[in-house]
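Retro notes, item 3 of 5
We never archived the inputs for the flavin-adenine dinucleotide complex last cycle. Fixing that now. Sequence and ligand:
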Amino acid sequence: MSLPQLTTIVAMSAAKTADLAVVGLGAFGAAVAYQATALGLDVVGFDSYHPPHDFGSSHAETRVTRLAVGEGAHYVPFAQRSHEIWREVGAATGSVLLHDYGGLIIAPTGASSDERWGSFVDDTATVAAAADLDFEQLSAAESRVRFPNLLVGDDEVVGREPTAGTVMADEAIAAQLHLANDGGADLRFGSTVTGLGRSEGRPIVRTSDGDIAARHVVVAAGAWAPSFHDSERLRVTRQVVFWFEAENLETWRPDHVSFAIWARESIDEYLGVFGAPWGGIPGVKVLGEQFVDTTSPEAVDRTVSPTEIATFYERMVEPRLSGLTPHCVKTAVCLYTNTDDDHFLIDAHPQHPDVTVVSACSGHGFKHSAAIGEALARRAAGHDHLDLTPFHRDRF
Ligand SMILES: Cc1cc2nc3c(=O)[nH]c(=O)nc-3n(C[C@H](O)[C@H](O)[C@H](O)COP(=O)(O)OP(=O)(O)OC[C@H]3O[C@@H](n4cnc5c(N)ncnc54)[C@H](O)[C@@H]3O)c2cc1C
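Structure as it came back at the time:
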């Protein structure tokens, strides 16, 4: 897919009109399309591929979800509402999208509060207390007894949130698209949006199939967002997910270890591990994070070399996790899109007040996607809902 040049305002005419056009039907676009259709809006949605797919930011089966969101108290209502929505959508589609078995976060003891990551357990405890959410802190010794697969260091503290868990990412997208389609949304897969413009005071979405005029447009283009807006502000990075063979998969049961995240001072030391197996992959899913090498969906290397696997195992897995072998049964390459402060960007398009852009595809967006989709759909229908102003551009 080539990069469309989309920020020029041009006059266009449109053959079809809709209440709401949604550009990108991944985690956020699927949620917007589903919620807007449920509100009775006439919705048309476009995606270059057929989500869920493996080319953006929402694949690799599972995502961590936490109600005590240490990234900031303003996220809590979105995570809470998303949990409710995933239960509703799961009930409507006969699937279990949310497994709230609890989750663990691990950080150094005594980290200073101005550390971005190192104080994550303390930050999360503060948010949990303010939101009246259960959150317990375990010493390294206590944690090693309860979770022997996690080699927690003596200088580390573990936070456990019983209401945290795992959301089935690909399935959640598919379920919301299914309901949107059943509700009458016009979902156009394999249809790339190549331009945004205006006609008669309304936004126009240009695709290879023709132009659509809409009262409102939501652009939820994930890692393709920089071709639509804020290219100077958004950085796309390559992230790798590994599944390593377990000596005894039973000890990684997700109802025992749903997920654990190591958040030390340096992002190089970040490690996430999930319970297993979820979707039949006979391995334990682990991932790190990196923000140094920027890329694009077109340029990214989607292969993972044996050296990359071996290095990750030796540096990240072996010192922290017991019972995993160096044998990697599967890998996936996924994309983050981050702002400088790692918080979301949800605001009007710089040149189109009736186009809302949602770039929430940093490493912590999925858990809020269902509720942010609902908030954007309600906004398009003229109703106020959860407060999106913390994600506006004017904070930079
Ligand atoms: C490895 C990894 C781990 C993560 N872990 C977590 C986690 O544990 N917890 C958490 O909360 N979050 C996590 N995240 C973040 C979360 O997954 C993302 O925030 C979220 O999935 C982003 O969704 P999106 O809708 O913005 O992007 P996507 O789901 O990628 O959707 C964008 C869609 O737009 C379409 N598109 C783009 N351009 C066009 C165009 N011109 N025309 C038509 N269609 C277009 C694409 O085809 C794509 O389908 C993680 C992300 C990654 C990569």
